[in-house]
Amino acid sequence: MESSLPQVAALDRSTLLKAFDETKTGVKGLIDAGITEIPSIFRAPPATLTSPKPPSSSDFSIPTIDLKGGGTDSITRRSLVEKIGDAAEKWGFFQVINHGIPMDVLEKMIDGIREFHEQDTEVKKGFYSRDPASKMVYSSNFDLFSSPAANWRDTLGCYTAPDPPRPEDLPATCGEMMIEYSKEVMKLGKLLFELLSEALGLNTNHLKDMDCTNSLLLLGHYYPPCPQPDLTLGLTKHSDNSFLTILLQDHIGGLQVLHDQYWVDVPPVPGALVVNVGDLLQAN
């Protein structure tokens, strides 16, 4: 009988995952139902919850780079290229300020995503899908059925470039802002790829000519309040399968990056964006 126990446990987990997915209400639906304990499918293995903190030192703060309009004069440009190259090589992460995206666009994007996730459940269900071919996907955990533990997170996402979705296919709460924000991020992305190309000693347009700037996937994550935050994670350790990720944090915080074996906090800075060098850029 003992040998069958793991199979029973696996079956139970599979049943729980399927039942959770079929609600089409995500983690927010659990909170709306008034749960006080998180379901077992979200309980992370203890080893993944350990987070060794670095020594208290400025050496363990991700670099912040002032883009200053992209460096219109040659001296500023050279300085920017050097700083970005150094940050990308040593950290793989950096924050950018004075990046050109208006503060009200950033704030409206955050508010719009929050409004989508907190709106009437029946409206959200209309967007729920696990079909990667869908123009617009709302779901909880893209790897729900393959990961060791589900993350405490719901996500709204779509490709906004090269073929932006039709306005009528987007949520009323945030669709207009998704398109506007995407246009701004594309402009910033092109500048960053120019600076990274120069940092690599290549022609300014080298990475753009490789089509690194052709596609944009916009993801709006939502992390509902958790009754047992010490037992789960909003997002487990990972790297991004992209060329670059440009991340807009809200004011709550919680983001960490791995550096020299330590998990380093990235406190929210109003107006700043976090840039992450993705797997595809490293592979090149």
From TrEMBL:
<feature type="domain" description="Fe2OG dioxygenase">
    <location>
        <begin position="212"/>
        <end position="284"/>
    </location>
</feature>
<dbReference type="InterPro" id="IPR044861">
    <property type="entry name" value="IPNS-like_FE2OG_OXY"/>
</dbReference>
<dbReference type="Pfam" id="PF03171">
    <property type="entry name" value="2OG-FeII_Oxy"/>
</dbReference>
<dbReference type="GO" id="GO:0051213">
    <property type="term" value="F:dioxygenase activity"/>
</dbReference>
<dbReference type="Pfam" id="PF14226">
    <property type="entry name" value="DIOX_N"/>
</dbReference>
<dbReference type="InterPro" id="IPR026992">
    <property type="entry name" value="DIOX_N"/>
</dbReference>
<dbReference type="GO" id="GO:0046872">
    <property type="term" value="F:metal ion binding"/>
</dbReference>
<comment type="similarity">
    <text>Belongs to the iron/ascorbate-dependent oxidoreductase family.</text>
</comment>
<keyword id="KW-0479">Metal-binding</keyword>
<keyword id="KW-0223">Dioxygenase</keyword>
<dbReference type="InterPro" id="IPR005123">
    <property type="entry name" value="Oxoglu/Fe-dep_dioxygenase_dom"/>
</dbReference>
<keyword id="KW-0560">Oxidoreductase</keyword>
<dbReference type="InterPro" id="IPR027443">
    <property type="entry name" value="IPNS-like_sf"/>
</dbReference>
<protein>
    <submittedName>
        <fullName>Oxoglutarate/iron-dependent dioxygenase</fullName>
    </submittedName>
</protein>
<keyword id="KW-0408">Iron</keyword>
